[in-house]
Write the structure tokens for this entry.
Amino acid sequence: MNDHCAGAKFRAAVAEEAPLQVVGAITAYAARMAQRTGFRAIYLSGGGVAANSLGMPDLGISTMEDVLTDIRRITDVCDLPLLVDVDTGWGGAFNIARTVRSLIKAGAGALHIEDQVAAKRCGHRPGKAVVPKDEMVDRVKAAVDARYDPGFVIMARTDAIAVEGIDAAIERAIACVEAGADMIFPEAIYTLEQYRTFKDAVRVPILANITEFGQTPLFTTNELESAGVDIVLYCCGAYRAMNKAALNFYETVRRDGTQKSAVPTMQTRAELYDFLDYHAYEQKLDALFAGGKDD
């Protein structure tokens, strides 16, 4: 995707689908499936990169280069706008600026940066700690100042609800908007009323992270729309389902000495080839071989 259109496409999707459903796509192939299914935007989770690409927990262990590797693979084959989790930005103001420039160059359309301390935790785990409000504002300013594509979306995430309460979290969010944040991601919200309160206060698009096994109930899109939510994120569900299916396959083969009983749960070879546009590639290869024989 051209690095000067992804952000504009993300903004257009937010404006045109109410609320915009954004699904996690942990691999390039998953991104192709999401696009075929009809989604208008996709997401790369920091926790998803840590777990699936590195086999590590979501504790601030992954680096910018780890995430960029997966971004490039996704944007090479999928032209849906990609929202990327950059955790705390991987350093101070200069690092954050480098992160923004690198994401735009790699074809991402948006990022969210959070107010946790550098040794961060999953947003739905206990024991989180946040930096002072002024430090988070400086993170947002650094990101906004580094943005050379005005369409690229800077989204500010606050984890302060669990630490300082909703009033303090709203105060942080408003300060981030004043610093140039385009959208707000209030993490680990408990009620629809809290979303309404956030939206009324910040007056920019807000995101609801509807993740399984977390602190936020699995609200429907209709419920979230009624609360003023603009974007509904399903960050990890696809890879959780993929991993469960893979584990079932491993256990079945180890237990039974054959995969026969697991075959009905699998995507078929024909389905795989369909999503990959395999036959079009093969036809080109056949044509090359035929041309070589003619010569």
